[in-house]
Each structure stands twice: as structure tokens, then as C-alpha cells.
Amino acid sequence: MRDWNLQGRNRDERLARAAGLADGKRVATADARALLEAVLEPGDRVCLEGNNQKQADFLARTLASVDPARVNGLHMVQSVLALPEHLDVFERGIAAKLDFSFSGPQGARLARMVADGRIAIGAIHTYLELFGRYFVDLTPRVSLVAAQAADAAGNLYTGPNTEDTPVIVEATAFKRGIVIAQVNELVDSVPRVDIPGGWVDFVIQSPTPHYIEPLFTRDPAQISEIQVLMAMMAIKGIYAEYGVQRLNHGIGFDTAAIELLLPTYAESLGLKGKICRHWALNPHPALIPAIEAGFVESVHSFGSELGMEAYIRARPDVFFTGADGSMRSNRAMCQAAGHYACDLFIGSTLQIDLAGNSSTATLGRIAGFGGAPNMGADARGRRHASPAWLKAGREAREGGGQMPRGQKLVVQMVETFREHMQPAFVERLDAWELAESAGMELPPVMIYGDDVTHILTEEGIANLLLCRTAEEREQAIRGVAGYTPVGRGRDRRMVENLRDRGVIRRAEDLGIDKRMATRDLLAARSVKDLVRASGGLYDPPKRFRNW
Amino acid sequence: METLTYEYRGGRPVNSPPPSVLVGVVGSGNLEVLVEPAPLGGLCRVEVQTAAVGFGATWQAVLDDVFARHPLADVRISINDVGATPAVVGLRLDQALDAFAGGTQP
Fold first, then answer.
1. Which domains does chain A have, with CATH numbers?
2. Which of A161, A394, A398, A488 sits 20 to 30 Å CA-CA off A111?
């Protein structure tokens, strides 16, 4: 007779090996390594919670310190590689295979280790894709997560940075895996239950509070006048044009400039209430002036942002908060919201080719994708209509006699030259060479050209929805590529024709006076201005304080 | 340091121009633009002092487009550049020449 509960029995064996180490669900800090060596088995799929912001850093250090003779060949399935320990486990032979989404700070070392054959990469995923696979073919056997606090029953309170924890724990706990949480404090009762205790097997107090990276804080002092000009074009030429009410902004100074122009420039155009009311967005400090000016009705977040806790607590009508008053973020839910419920994504990139494909891959770095591909892709499964979505769909299909449907606005916003005069427009993405050198099956493209609807540079906006042929599309892209070799290779007659048709629109075509494009137009010109705009509630991390 | 000079013909003089217009700052990645009326026999002369050597062709292309947008005569434009991108150069010149020609703010 077949045994239909091998996983459950294996789970019981693991728990039995760890029984002597736990008092209820609590394991002493000093026994953390012994616990991991007891429950882990060679070849296990392991999720070590690495988020954009919150890091299970103590468990990462502990995992990197286990005896490779006992624990080896692990298959790591985690969204973000942020800490050195995330790669140390491969260096020491504890882990062998990796499926992930984003490796920003570890990208260069990851590329070296892949080249040396120390890491076998399964695939680089988008967030929703990796989370989806947690429930299909990459379900973790053991998950190592981070929370703010736990009670004796194992109930976890994550605080504002809930991030990936719910999706990781759900996938692991309901497939008879083992969930181990590091917590900043052990308490009698948690302020709210973010993860039910019944889904958690072990709780360990970490010697220091888990690390949180302030990834989404942009100092307004560093925003340039070119970024102000581009933000003016985004607001007047795209947000107002399509009546964009629901949106997601990428990370970076280009989009921070848009946020800081809402209470000034957008207000002067009479756009309050007509654009930017609902957001899938981390609590960007740069959004404070727009919230205070009454532009923003709601914000749901992937994660929180250091220093924004008291401000969020004081604005519960805007943010999603628990009964305890602090924010509840959720990366999987917010990614789904950004994909299906937003009409526009706008973000920056490093390279764009002549078909509009964009990539942040550069030689010698395997950086991954993060959230941009889920946000910056048309949601083919979407069915509800909105004016912005319908207008974009009409523009793409006009005269084609096709079934009417809408389309998501996906905007790539770049200056034509990056620092050191590196052109943002190229004939061939570096992603091709990276794919060849790292043995990838596909070039790592962040946003595919057929999903991009607009490219915005200091030279103007190219509306790719209105292009009818590949040649028109190429010339529309060249026509906003400035003085890069790609831009100077334009067919001037064709570009002027595209401009006459409104496919390309310059600042002057939009009625934008470039003399207004100064930093005076920013609603906040420094971090201190943001603190002031928040009524003193925003408490920026020390590295952003220069007063 | 490199000095580049460009001259354009076929523009129109500005009626009662201001004595001068100065925009921008001399700082890394930025530039300063000074626009003055000058009796140049109908020429528009641009003198560029730049810290970045070897970008003469790019300057030519940027300035050709600026002159096409602002066809002025009897004007001297002095540029003190500290490695500004073409985007910054174009924006500064548009700002300076709009102010020089006395366009109105919206």
C-alpha cells in the first residue's frame, strides 16, 4: 500500500531531531546553528527570507556557519540576494543551486561565482513568478523568516515590513515544511497577528534587530533640472493626457521628481483629483508633499520605508494599517495590485534598444529584475475598464478592425546620456553578451519592447502606441534619443513627420515653458523640507540627515 | 580645457534686447551661459570653453538644433562648461535664449 504522507512523516522526523532544542516553540539564540543542523537535510529547498528591505540577517549568518559535512547541496529559493551571507552559503558548499528575483548589491559577486561554477542558477524570476512557483514546483522544505516580535504560541508580528513573509510561510507551512522565525523580541502578546502561530514551528530571538535597508528614500537635493523638465512632460504629456488615476512609480530620482511636482506643477494645471489618486507604491518620503496637498487617496505598499512609521500611523486613511496603527505591507499582494489594478507604470532603466526593449543588465553583473517586469507589462488577464486603459488600447488598435480592448501604459523614463556620457540608447543591449557569458537561455530583458507604450527623455515623448510599423517605432525611439549615436542616426524627415502626427511630442509641443524647469518647482528641495512637510512626523535615517 | 567657436547666419536680431542674460552655474556636470547683444554683422557667435575635450561634433549637433529653435542675429553666446550632458546644455541654452528674446511666462 502506497504511503501518501511521506512529507508529513519526514517533517515529524525533522521535528523529533530538534525536540531537545526547543522550549515550546522557542529556541535559545545560542542553539540556532544546532537547530538548523537538526532540521535541514542535504539537497533541501530552502527559502532564506531576503526582501528588498527586511533581512533575516541572523538566520543568514547562522546558515552560513553550519557544518557543510552535515548540510550541503541546498537549493535556495529566495526573492532577493542582499547580504554577503546569501552568497557565502554557496562559497562554503552549503548550497549549490539558486532560484531568485533580484540581487542588486550582490550582482557583481554573483556573476563571478556563476562564472566559476560555484552557483547553478535555475532562473531569474519576477517576484510574482517566483512566489507562484513556491506553490507549484519550488515549494520550500524549510523557510527562515524575520519578524519584529513573537509570542509563546509562535504568533508573529512583522510590523510595517511584512513584505514577503506571508507568501513564504503559507507555501511552506501548508506543504508540511518547517518554518523558523528570527524575531527582534519575545513578548507576552503581539500587537497584531501577521502570521498565525500555528504556521510557525520555531522562534529564535536574534541578538540584534533585523536589518532594514532604506531603499526608497531619494534626497530631493539631488534632483536635477533635467529631471524636473522630464517630470513636467510626464505630468502634462502622459498623466493629464490619459487621466491616470491608478499607478506605480519605479525607484529613482526621475520618478521622485514627478512626486514632488504634483503639489506645484500638476496643481497649477488643475489636475488635483484628476490624476494620481491611487497608488501601488512603497511609502516614498518624496510622496509626502502630494499626500499633504490632498492629491493622494490611497497607497498600498510592497514593504515599508525606514523613518516613515510615525507619518504612516498618522495617515490611516491613506495607508493600509493594522488595528495596532502600524502599516501592513505585502509584496505579493501589492505586485498583483500593481499588475492588474494600475493603469500606468513608469520607471527608469539603463539601456533601451531600437525595438524599445529595456534592460538593467550590464556586463559582469547579474542583477535580476525585482518588481519592474510585473508592473511594466500589459496585464493580459485584465478585464475591467478605465478611461486611461481604454484610451491606450484605442491608440494601439485604431483602424485595425480588431476586437477592442484596453492596454496598460508602460513608460520608460531616461536621460539620453547616463553618467560618464554612457548612452541610454543602444543598437544592442549588453544583456545579449551577459546571456552568452553566463550561459542563460534568454537575454535578461527587464521590460520587453512590445509592452512599452511611451519613452520619455529630455528631448520629448515617443508614443509607441501610435506607431504602425517597426520602422516607425525605430524612428520614434531615435527621435527622442538625443545626441547619442542612436539619436544622431535618425531619419530627420521621418522624425518630423512623426512629430506632426503627435507620435513624438517635444516640451514645446506640449506647451511647456522650459524656463519653469528649475528646482524651484519642487515641492521639497531637501530631506529637511520633507520632514517639515510631514509636520515633523517623518524621521529620516541618519545618513539622509545633513543638518 | 578646450575652446570651440561656432557661427550661424540667417537669424533675426531681437528688438530692444536686455543688456545680458546669465543662467546656470559653474559646477561639475553643469555650465554657465551668458547671452549678450553684439554688433556681429548679422552673425550669432557661440564661444564654448569646455572641460571635456573631444566632443566638438556633439557641440556642433547640439548648437545646430539650438540655432534652429532660436534663429537670432547679432548675439554673442559665451558658454563655460564643466562637463554638462547635451541635455543640460540644450536646456540651459533654451532657458537663456527664451529669456533673452523676451518670451512670456505661461
1. 25-205 (3.40.1080.10), 223-527 (3.40.1080.10)
2. A161
